[in-house]
Design brief:
The complex is a heterodimer of chains A (94) and B (319). Chain A has two helices and three strands, in the order ββαβα. By secondary structure, chain A is of the alpha+beta class. Classes of the chains: A alpha+beta (94), B mainly alpha (319). The interface between A and B is medium-sized, with 30 and 37 residues.
């Protein structure tokens, strides 16, 4: 980080019933300023009813460039999907 | 932990994503040249948005009504927002906004040459909204499908907001064009001065555009400069007719065979001069930006000092 203000990731709940979604980032000296900046930047037209800001440095992320894909364990377990199973003809509501 | 892939396998995966029209996301491996091209383009785009606040901000205090003033204020605030969306997108590529601003301030990075023209009359605010934002929209719509995810997503937000910008400009100009003879003349004068610079916003002709082919291959760019310029002319001619204004091009005429308007030759020496720093407002624009940045320094320092003082409670990140 250079001498500037720290970076914060911004998450917004678009409306009630939806989860927060990442929309971008802002620079701010502290959480309160980050919330205000995020409001001014990402909700000028009523795009949100709730905002989260998270210090960008606090986000841990999976790495996409590893040889064995991180998500490999999910790829060979087709039996986790309902379409894997045989259902006899005529059986309903299953 | 697993071993990283070698470069050729990474390149192959990258090429595959591009070919499948998938998006490249921040932590993906990407060729260094792709990253550099994006940083250059997104930074230049961001710089254009914030420098673009100046020619319009010039008229906020002299807007002819409260309605127009509120609209212009909201529009200039949007331009600041667009700049920030774009700086945020650039920062996902591992650069720092402060460094990009330095590059703007010391001339290492450029902004759109259109903002080096002055806004001499109130009608210019209409012409800027109608033509400059109109041209920007045509450039930006295909960028919503740019191969780099954060840039594409920023463009979606921006395009949504730009349509208000263009309409307010058209409405303003339409009121003047159908007002008194003096107002009509003012509107015509604004069109006369902004038409050709707006056509130059699409960049040099395809034959001379140095970055185009590679950017098209990477799906950063989806249409050629000349293709987009033609689209802009075709859209603008009937709009000028509705305004009752004359586009200042004696060679402009419908070409039945091509299904497009033919238009005159663009004076690219003017474009090159402005790029070289010799436009009417180059020095003034950069000086005003540097001044604003320096005037804000004590505010940033004070905010950081305040955060440091209060960080002992729940936060430890504002270092």
């Amino acid at each position: 980080m250079s001498s500037g203000l720290p970076l914060w990731e911004v998450f917004i709940r678009g409306r009630r019933g939806l989860s927060h979604q990442h929309v971008g980032s802002v620079h701010a000296s502290d959480a309160e300023m980050a919330l205000r900046n995020a409001r001014d930047l990402y909700t000028r037209r009523g795009e949100g009813v709730s905002i989260w800001v998270v210090p960008a440095a606090s986000v841990s992320a999976s790495s996409p460039d590893e040889k064995e894909p991180f998500f490999d364990p999910a790829a060979d377990k087709v039996y986790r999907h309902p379409t894997f199973y045989r259902v006899p003809e005529g059986v309903k509501n299953l | 932990m697993t071993e990283p892939l070698d470069t050729s396998a990474l390149q192959e995966r990258f090429d595959g994503l591009i070919a499948a029209d998938e998006r490249i996301e921040p932590r993906d491996w990407m060729p260094e040249a792709y990253r550099k091209t994006l940083v250059r383009q997104i930074a230049q785009h961001a710089h254009s948005e914030i420098i673009g606040m100046q020619p319009e901000g010039n008229w906020i205090t002299r807007a002819p009504s409260l309605r127009r003033k509120a609209i212009l204020l909201a529009k200039v605030q949007d331009e600041a927002g667009h700049g920030l969306y774009l700086y945020a997108a650039a920062e996902t590529l591992g650069v720092d906004r402060a460094d990009l601003l330095d590059a703007l301030h010391n001339g290492r990075q450029k902004y759109s040459s259109i903002f080096n023209y002055p806004t001499l009359t109130w009608a210019d605010i209409g012409a800027v909204g109608w033509l400059v934002d109109g041209a920007a929209i045509i450039n930006q719509i295909p960028l919503q499908r740019c191969s780099y995810g954060p840039y594409a997503r920023a463009m979606v937000r921006i395009c949504k907001e730009e349509s208000f910008h263009q309409r307010q400009g058209f409405e303003l100009l339409n009121d003047l064009a159908h007002g008194t003879p003096e107002q009509h003349a003012m509107a015509q004068d604004a069109l006369d001065r902004w038409w050709w610079p707006s056509l130059m916003m699409f960049g040099p002709p395809d034959a001379e555009s140095s970055h185009s082919a590679q950017s098209m291959a990477w799906r950063i760019k989806r249409h050629s400069n000349d293709e987009l310029r033609q689209r802009f002319v075709d859209i603008s001619v009937p709009q000028a007719e509705a305004l009752g204004l004359t586009i200042p091009d004696p060679d402009l005429r419908w070409n039945e065979e091509r299904g497009h308007y033919d238009f005159g030759v663009i004076d690219w020496t003017e474009f090159q001069e402005i790029l070289a720093g010799n436009g009417p407002c180059n020095r003034q624009r950069v000086a005003a930006r540097v001044q604003a940045h320096e005037d804000g320094e004590w505010v940033r320092q004070a905010a950081l000092a305040y955060a440091a003082k209060h960080s002992d409670s729940e936060r430890d990140v504002a270092a």
